[in-house]
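User: Sequence in, structure out. Go.
Assistant: Echoing your sequence, followed by the structure tokens.
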Amino acid sequence: MTTYLPTLKQLQYLVALRDIGHFGRAAEACFVTQSTLSAGIRELETLIGITLVERTRRVVRFTPLGERIADKARRVLREAEELGDMARAAGQPLSGEMRMSVIPTIAPFMLPQILPRLRRDYPDLKLYLREEPSGAACEGLHQGRTDCVLLALPFGCGDVESVRLFEDRLFLAYPKGELSPPAAGVRPSEIDESRLLLLEDGHCLKDHALAACNRPEIRAEATMLGTSLHTIVQMVDNGLGMTILPEMALDAGILERTHIASAPLAADNPSRNIALVWRKASPREKDFRLMAKVLAER
């Protein structure tokens, strides 16, 4: 008896629709027309004899079994990609495609330094970058959307391998003249929690800053803003408060042309650790370890 199996393309269409929830945008993500994607999913449903997606004019709703099959399809696609990874790993180091997620409190400060060096030393590497918060980056890693993540630890990213690249100290940034800290830095007890501006939930820098301060009242009183470090710096420059910045941001010149001073945090854990993480048992482990070595060369 002939057995008809789903194609990888059909599974790709199904996973894209599950992730995006819209036929048109899912088709764009797969670089096909909407009719091609829709036909591919219908062929898959006909092949297995089950309705996976309920279609209405406004809503795309997966059936319970459709949800389970989409999750399984995602794992199948990831395994298929790893077949190619195994072949690349056996060839030239750091070549072919690599998808890396980078969190927003690292990307604008590290990438301008490392990308020119990677292009020069590894011209056959096609590095596709995705900037997203830590939680989304780790979810994408485990779902196979990305191959590795440039992350700040500690952060719970699941069952992963990691290489620590370097320590990134934390500094208090404040309007010039507002504080006169000693050379050793600012103690957490000296921070006015009512004037502290931090990134909102989802950004691990906020959690690292709160952990470094180790003052429960700061979590309750600090203002959490869903914005970027550059925007918060502008608010500090306008006298609206103070914030905590990583050393890499200061080294990259984030305070240039501002009236902001900075001082290191004199705390028990005044830093975060920058690391490269990837899925355990990945066939590209040697590539990731080599990439980590490159990234650590600041």
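User: And one key feature?
Assistant: The two ends are 60 Å apart (CA to CA).
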